């Protein structure tokens, strides 16, 4: 049976089936993204912290806007070419549309990559520090200010990757693994790290485990740690645990039968408190829920803060591994600090009735670092000049002007003496460096810009994250909305690419049917473009 109205429109609506379907689908999409936009507005208006403003690079977003607009035009030309039965022009226009979608996703991928490599830190006094972390150096190697470490100076994990200086350093003398839950990658890292430092990790005491009532497996004290050893102990432990569970179950079943026989008038709830299994009367096999190893000489292991709960003499990893030893200093080391922000600190100070200038002067960043005090002094001079310039226009500096130093200003202050600090004549913005093409896309070029270094003691760290959804609500919404939009771009591009590369047969058999399908794909593509036209200003410009 032939399905009606696939090619020819219905007389009552003037629409063919797929066009009705796409309009219903787009209506649901409008409600989805409308909910996101509404939530963004309400969260921004009610935010209990300074909402990020103009933090995203405008140029890539602007280029992406024109890329999508151009692709929306060419998808219409592709549909028109099919209507005119011009297959060659259809291929050219649709090919351009697909290429535009690829360009959009490449630029979005670059933007995401930059965010996932940029570090943010909130100190205990609510100062914000932004930049890039340094990497851990090998034991005995020290970094001298002004001299870049060589590649061979960096400590590497067992995958050959460097450690960022955002780790908990724990000097370990003994480690106990959860027999069932140990994380293989962390075990391999311990073994690798110990070998690098000519240390050994050996079984602390002999283990005699039974895998059956008449079969014993012995693990000798002093056996070197490796994954195979842990797997063997795990296998023996699970066999003993399964055997013991069977014994307990059988004993419990026997006790229930006896209790029921002796007290037939009682129900289960009355019998339950008096039924307990006496494990001492059972022939249980020894289990090993944890295995202890000694580390000699002691070795300092590095763990991400989210992976360990530490105290001065002990630590526990997320997989249940227990460490014994000594917690060492574990500062966060910024190789480059390219922005500082006191807006949150000022907001908290004003809530307590404290003068913002006093609060900033008493912040850890200002009290402990003379370099940032000098930068802040230059910022205040430029701010005074900006206030005078804006006064002529009946305006005043914004909170961002007063309490945030972005990377352009940071680079300017690092290379400019206090006496020479000045905003450009006629300019109504804080001073900043001129940008090359690379910096307009990716931010500062750290090979030509000079930024300060900073070590933040662990006790001063309130919260730290990359510019990822965990950092704040703004970035959570940014990644959610742009990520969902990106999935729509990929989905739409795949459909249009299918029509481009696999539509020839359909075109030869029924060109009008293909034209209708391309029209439906084009409607979806216009919607994707429209969503971005809303996303770009509210995320990039406001």
Automatic annotation (TrEMBL):
Keyword Transmembrane helix: yes
Keyword Zinc-finger appears in the UniProt entry: no
Topology within the bilayer: Multi-pass membrane protein
Compartmental location: Membrane
Residues that span the membrane, as ranges: 20-42, 62-80, 92-110, 475-501, 522-541
Keywords linked to the UniProt accession: Membrane, Transmembrane, Transmembrane helix
Annotated ranges, domain Heme-copper oxidase subunit III family profile: 1-542
Family stated for the protein in its record: Belongs to the cytochrome c oxidase subunit 3 family.
PANTHER family in the cross-refs: CYTOCHROME C OXIDASE SUBUNIT III, NITRIC OXIDE REDUCTASE SUBUNIT E
Official protein name in the record: Cytochrome c oxidase subunit 3
Organism from which the protein derives: Luteolibacter rhizosphaerae
